[in-house]
């Protein structure tokens, strides 16, 4: 087996191409330290300093490092890549440095340095292609930040060297678009500006080249009080005089730029034929480009005919046309067991891929669509919309910029798209006889077909030129290589399995023959599982969820899913996550309906909903053990929910299963399982709040309120009004928030529900805080405090004391505010409430600043910063960084202030918070002028 360690992005490990879970954040950081120092001893003290970075240390740091090393040894051992040895000087990770992308990057740069002046840049392209994002993503200590800065410098130098090579090769037109973004990132880099000017000049845009120079000259004067250097001034003069030596070389060389977002699925294999269709797509794209309009290309045809594979094949052949990246989404337009994907869901996925932060993305769909169009404006990108239902589903996903190309596949005609947006449509036919035979040869081998020519011909005839059918038959033949093709042909020939395969009618009937024949070779458990997986809601299933659905033990479910995967009935698109092609799902679901009575069919669905509900309940308790609890009924027989080990595991589970949880709630509502509807909303509360999923939070609580009302459950009705009200408050809908919170309070008072009253007042205070009304917030918090005290709920007493202290301080009563916050902090620490502790520490920092006690304010803010970072609360972390920078500035600690503000600015830009980013930029500008 071969291991691949990745540090130029998230800290990850792959073995033979498969992702291997390394462990939680600190453990990954320990691995990263050892990999950076591969084959060299690292003292324990250095590991501690680099991983914890002066923050809050564990009680026994050396012991903690030893534990992490022990756990890492278990992860590394199966990879057979050496291991971590203990030496007198420290720990040594013995590994082939070629298997570590960071070392591979540095060595490629070194090798390229000797030939950069005359080379072809291939080594530099390889090196730059290793980058997947920010190195050591998520690791934020001084040591990691220093290494990250060094690597960023190396990367920028490599990019500049590669651009020089491309310009020498006459690739000025190709590099110009990429240089725009680099100039925006490095506006004062004179070498980069010179490359930008030369590329403009060689493209015949002399005025733009001169304008670039003038902009740089003005900015250098304003910000640094300096003029451009002699080399740039000389280039400016040569452009003014049209120096012939600046002309491009006569024989340009094509070098494909490295894209950014790369969401395209794997290159189709095996692939055969379609030469005419590929040429027609290229011609269609060229025609659209010549018209100067955005290219909208559509491939239509019946299901299973190979639309997606053709689209991907064409896209990979022409990646050089889309240097700024490729986006991909499966719109599930013809999903047999659910609705097509909402355009809002697709847009949200695109924003995430383009770097949008969940806490800053607007909740309104139109605003999200506008943000998407803004983010792709000016970029040459491919947007592939796979399996579209109709033109309406596609229309709102179209970029507004003419440089983008949209590639759509659909079983519909998309005539409206062609009429209103100039879409060019390619209607796909089945493979012809030669192409179908070529595809089967690539699956099996020419020798196998030549040994049984008549059987091979019959199989191809029965598959009717449909690539999906050919692939399923070939998988069966490959699985049983000793079986003659004649036996497979005989099975297909059977009238009971053929079902008018050659009629050319509805494709579902055509493929049912192949699928039913394929299922006949499965075990009894696998046959049953195929029907259940085909009927399951949601985009995919994890292994534990599939075990719950089928009622099988996890070990047996794993074997059954592997059997289905081998038969090409399911795909394992991620480790231990399975999905079905929509046609296979349609067949499997129909097959199950024919064999199972309605009462029996309800049992697997009940197990699946219970799996999601009870696992989400346990995960939510990991995230926030003080969240107001609810009681669940006993889990359905045959269902084994999970219990995540810790907070990071719970967050990862919610991230992976979020879409399935939303679907499970809708399914429970459709089935009339009203308690499960509002209980699922409860389980998602903490995850939605920390992730900033405001729109989804409103959706689940709206459904929860309706279910509680229909159920006549008074307590649930009170709870759902309360939490729907707070969901509205978080989303900025003040009137709706107050309406539901007042209703929750009224219901709690009528039932003499003191706990319900306390939480209603607490959330009303939070709602008023969202409106910056400190007096009303303080009034509500003061109502909540005695209620929580009487109920002996010290954690919630602490939260309310923190609320009171914060609003008192905001209103100018600093002494009372400090006293209440100090009491809140003591309660949070005594009862292990890290989130409450972080919030109060930030409030105490604010109070100290108002009292001009900046040293103590710094102390509080640093503690709050560490706590928010540990919780993964990037939004609050950024705000605390700003406050901490201000405290440093007030003490004359200019460099510390700059460091904190720059970090906050990076957070705000990542989170798409332009107002906050502008505020911090002004602080940095003022710092530079002092």
TrEMBL record:
Keyword Cell inner membrane listed: no
Record keywords, A-Z: TPR repeat, Transcription, Transcription regulation
Start and stop residues of the TPR repeats: 718-751
Pfam families with a match to the protein in the record: BTAD (PF03704), TPR_12 (PF13424)
Domain Bacterial transcriptional activator residues, every copy: 100-240
Domain of life (superkingdom): Bacteria
UniProt cross-references to CDD domains, sorted A to Z: BTAD
TM segment ranges: none
PROSITE patterns in alphabetical order: TPR
PANTHER family, per database record: TRANSCRIPTIONAL REGULATOR REDD (PTHR35807:SF1), TRANSCRIPTIONAL REGULATOR REDD-RELATED (PTHR35807)
Protein name per Swiss-Prot or TrEMBL: BTAD domain-containing putative transcriptional regulator
Source organism of this protein record: Amycolatopsis halotolerans
Lineage of the organism: Bacteria, Bacillati, Actinomycetota, Actinomycetes, Pseudonocardiales
């Amino acid at each position: 087996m071969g291991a691949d360690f990745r540090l130029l992005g998230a800290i990850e490990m792959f073995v033979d191409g498969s992702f291997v879970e390394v462990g939680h954040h600190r453990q990954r950081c320990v691995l990263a330290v050892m990999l950076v120092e591969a084959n060299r001893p690292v003292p324990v003290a250095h590991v501690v300093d680099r991983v914890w970075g002066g923050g809050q240390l564990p009680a026994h740091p050396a012991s903690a490092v030893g534990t992490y090393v022990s756990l890492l040894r278990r992860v590394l051992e199966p990879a057979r890549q050496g291991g971590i040895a203990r030496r007198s000087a420290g720990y040594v990770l013995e590994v082939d440095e070629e298997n570590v992308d960071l070392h591979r990057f540095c060595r490629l740069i070194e090798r390229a340095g000797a030939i950069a002046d005359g080379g072809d840049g291939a080594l530099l392209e390889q090196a730059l292609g290793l980058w997947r994002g920010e190195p050591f993503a998520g690791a934020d200590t001084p040591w990691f930040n220093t290494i990250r800065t060094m690597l960023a410098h190396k990367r920028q130098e490599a990019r500049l060297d590669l651009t020089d090579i491309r310009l020498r090769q006459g690739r000025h037109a190709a590099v110009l678009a990429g240089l725009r973004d680099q100039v925006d990132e490095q506006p004062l880099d004179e070498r980069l500006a010179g490359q930008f000017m030369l590329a403009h000049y060689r493209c015949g845009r002399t005025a733009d080249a001169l304008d670039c120079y003038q902009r740089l000259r003005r900015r250098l004067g304003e910000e640094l009080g300096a003029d451009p250097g002699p080399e740039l001034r000389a280039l400016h003069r040569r452009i003014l005089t049209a120096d012939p030596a600046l002309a491009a070389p006569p024989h340009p060389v094509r070098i494909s730029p490295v894209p950014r977002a790369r969401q395209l699925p794997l290159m189709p294999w095996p692939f055969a034929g379609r030469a005419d269709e590929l040429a027609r797509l290229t011609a269609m794209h060229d025609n659209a480009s010549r018209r100067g309009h955005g290219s909208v290309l559509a491939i239509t045809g019946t299901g299973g005919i190979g639309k997606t594979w053709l689209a991907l094949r064409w896209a990979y052949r022409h990646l050089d046309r889309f240097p700024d990246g490729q986006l991909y989404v499966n719109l599930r337009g013809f999903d047999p067991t659910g609705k097509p994907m909402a355009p809002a869901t697709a847009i949200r996925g695109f924003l995430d891929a383009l770097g949008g932060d969940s806490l800053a993305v607007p909740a309104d769909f139109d605003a999200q669509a506008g943000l998407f169009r803004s983010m792709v404006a000016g970029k040459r990108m491919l947007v592939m919309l796979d399996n579209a239902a109709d033109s309406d589903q596609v229309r709102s996903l179209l970029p507004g910029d003419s440089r983008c190309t949209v590639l759509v596949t659909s079983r519909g005609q998309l005539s409206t798209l062609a009429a209103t947006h100039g879409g060019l449509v390619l209607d796909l036919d089945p493979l012809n006889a030669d192409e179908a035979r070529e595809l089967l040869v690539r699956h099996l081998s020419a020798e196998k077909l030549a040994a049984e020519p008549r059987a091979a011909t019959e199989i191809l005839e029965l598959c009717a030129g449909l690539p999906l059918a050919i692939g399923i038959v070939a998988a069966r033949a490959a699985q049983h290589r000793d079986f003659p093709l004649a036996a497979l042909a005989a099975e297909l020939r059977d009238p009971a399995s053929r079902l008018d395969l050659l009629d050319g009618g509805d494709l579902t009937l055509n493929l049912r023959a192949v699928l039913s024949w394929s299922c006949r070779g499965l075990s009894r458990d696998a046959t049953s599982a195929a029907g259940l997986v085909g009927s399951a809601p949601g985009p995919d299933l994890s292994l534990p969820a599939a075990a719950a659905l089928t009622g099988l033990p996890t070990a047996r479910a794993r074997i059954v899913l592997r059997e289905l995967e081998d038969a090409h009935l399911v795909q394992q698109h991620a480790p231990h996550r399975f999905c079905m092609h929509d046609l296979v799902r349609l067949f499997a679901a129909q097959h199950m309906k024919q064999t199972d009575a309605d009462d029996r069919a309800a049992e697997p669905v009940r197990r699946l909903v219970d799996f999601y509900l009870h696992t989400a309940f346990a995960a939510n308790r990991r995230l926030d053990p003080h969240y107001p609890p609810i009681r669940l009924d006993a889990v359905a027989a045959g269902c084994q929910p999970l219990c995540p080990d810790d907070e990071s595991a719970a967050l990862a589970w919610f991230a992976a299963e979020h879409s399935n949880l939303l679907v499970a709630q809708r399914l429970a509502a459709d089935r009339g399982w009203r308690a499960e509807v509002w209980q699922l909303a409860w389980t998602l509360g903490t995850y939605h709040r920390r992730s900033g999923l405001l729109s989804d939070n409103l959706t689940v609580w709206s459904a929860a309120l309706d279910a509680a009302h229909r159920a006549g459950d008074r307590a649930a009705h009170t709870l759902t009004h309360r939490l729907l009200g707070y969901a509205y408050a978080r989303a900025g809908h003040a009137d709706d928030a107050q309406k539901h919170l007042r209703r929750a309070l009224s219901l709690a008072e009528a039932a003499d529900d003191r706990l319900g009253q306390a939480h209603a007042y607490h959330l009303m205070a939070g709602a008023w805080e969202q409106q910056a009304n400190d007096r009303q917030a303080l009034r509500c918090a003061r109502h909540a405090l005695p209620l929580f005290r009487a109920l002996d709920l010290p954690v919630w007493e602490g939260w309310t004391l923190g609320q009171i202290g914060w609003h008192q301080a905001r209103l100018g009563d600093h002494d009372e505010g400090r006293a209440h916050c100090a009491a809140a902090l003591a309660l949070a620490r005594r009862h292990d409430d890290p989130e409450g502790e972080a919030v109060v520490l930030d409030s105490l920092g604010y109070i100290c600043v108002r009292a001009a006690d900046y040293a103590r304010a710094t102390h509080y803010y640093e503690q709050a910063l560490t706590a928010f970072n540990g919780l993964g609360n990037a939004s609050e972390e950024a705000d605390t960084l700003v406050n901490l920078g201000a405290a440093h500035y007030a003490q004359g600690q200019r460099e510390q202030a700059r460091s904190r503000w720059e970090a906050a600015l990076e957070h705000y830009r990542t989170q798409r918070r332009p107002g906050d980013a502008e505020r911090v930029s002004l602080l940095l500008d003022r710092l530079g002028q002092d």
